[in-house]
Amino acid sequence: MPWKNLESIEQFENVLASEISGAMIFKHSTRCSVSRMVLKNFMAETETQPQNIYLLDLINLREVSNHIAQRLNIKHESPQLICIKNHLAQSVANHENILNHQIDSNL
């Protein structure tokens, strides 16, 4: 899967400003077994789909994670998949609700 690491607030703002066609941000906690399991399943489900997918290590980049939550007016959770289109959060899925059909219906 062609993951792109999301590593700064500036990078997030650039993604938000440029994404008209759609992008996804997967907020992942490297300390959480549920997050690891969901990430593994998500990767398997989206393996063949060419998407702009950004992975955020929210443990090491908590400031970026908090900025995203505030900027998009969404509650922080982990793991969390945020689908962005037309410069807005079109949908947010958390925990085990991160499923392939949600992605398809929102991007």
What can you tell me about this protein's structure?
By secondary structure, the protein is an alpha/beta fold. Helices cover 38% and strands 24% of the residues. It is built from 4 helices and 5 strands, in the order βαβαβαββα. It has helices spanning 9-18, 33-45, 62-72, 100-106, and strands spanning 4-5, 23-28, 53-57, 80-85, 88-94. The chain has a 5-stranded mixed beta sheet, with helices on both faces. It is globular, with a radius of gyration of 12 Å. The relative contact order is 0.24.
How much of the sequence lies in strands comes to 15-25%
- Could you describe the largest sheet, including whether it forms a barrel? 5 strands, mixed
Helix content: 25-40%
Shape: globular
Describe what is shown at a glance.
With 107 residues, the protein is an alpha/beta fold.
Name its key features.
globular; 107 residues; 4 helices; 5-stranded mixed beta sheet; alpha/beta; 5 strands
Helix and strand layout, with pairings?
Blueprint: E1 4-5, H1 9-18, E2 23-28, H2 33-45, E3 53-57, H3 62-72, E4 80-85, E5 88-94, H4 100-106
Parallel strand pairs: 1-3, 2-3
Antiparallel strand pairs: 2-4, 4-5
